[in-house]
Amino acid sequence: MDCLFCKISNKEIPSTVVYETDDVIAFNDITPQAPVHIVIIPKHHISSPADITAENCDIAGKMFLAASEIAKKLNLEKGFRIVSNCGEDGGQTVQHLHLHLLAQRSLAWPPG
Ligand code: 5GP
Ligand code: ZN
């Protein structure tokens, strides 16, 4: 499958990996929107949050666990934001489920 994040997960495309388990991998975003901007993905391909089902939803917990562990490792006690864009209106550009972990600047709410 021609999927950018599957290729990053398989190490066919290099990235700066900051966290890895059997099921989840996280790496620095190539176009960071904050001093800390990490992308957390399942190694197994799921296209978007809209494709989470009763059968595959355990991975969502593992992705949030990754975010929590990365936040502890990076001492993000001042806070952080987790975002998952879905579909055209959600601004999703890579069709492989991911969380953005953004930190170390004040983030506006609501988003634009
Ligand atoms: P989306 O727009 O789908 O929510 O997020 C996709 C993210 O992937 C963007 O923040 C974008 O900067 C990041 N990205 C796109 N291509 C690459 C790449 O080749 N390497 C890395 N590390 N990040 C990428
Ligand atoms: Zn993929």
The whole-angstrom Rg is 14 Å
| Quaternary | single chain
The dominant shape is: globular
Fraction of helical residues: 10-25%
Biggest sheet overview: 5 strands, antiparallel
Summarize model confidence as the mean pLDDT.
97
Low-confidence stretches: none
Furnish the topology, listing elements before pairings.
Elements: H1 4-9, E1 17-20, E2 24-28, E3 36-42, H2 58-73, E4 80-83, H3 87-90, E5 99-103
Antiparallel strand pairs: 1-2, 2-3, 3-5, 4-5
This protein binds guanosine-5'-monophosphate and zinc ion.
Guanosine-5'-monophosphate binds at residues 4, 13, 15, 27-31, 39, 85, 91-94.
What does this structure look like?
The chain is an alpha+beta fold. Helix content is 23%, strand content 22%. It contains 3 helices and 5 strands, in the order H-E-E-E-H-E-H-E. A 5-stranded antiparallel β-sheet has the order 1-2-3-5-4, covered by helices on one side. It is globular and about 35 Å long. The model has no long low-confidence stretch (mean pLDDT 97). The structure holds guanosine-5'-monophosphate (5GP) and zinc ion. Zinc ion is lined by residues 3, 5-6, 45, 96.
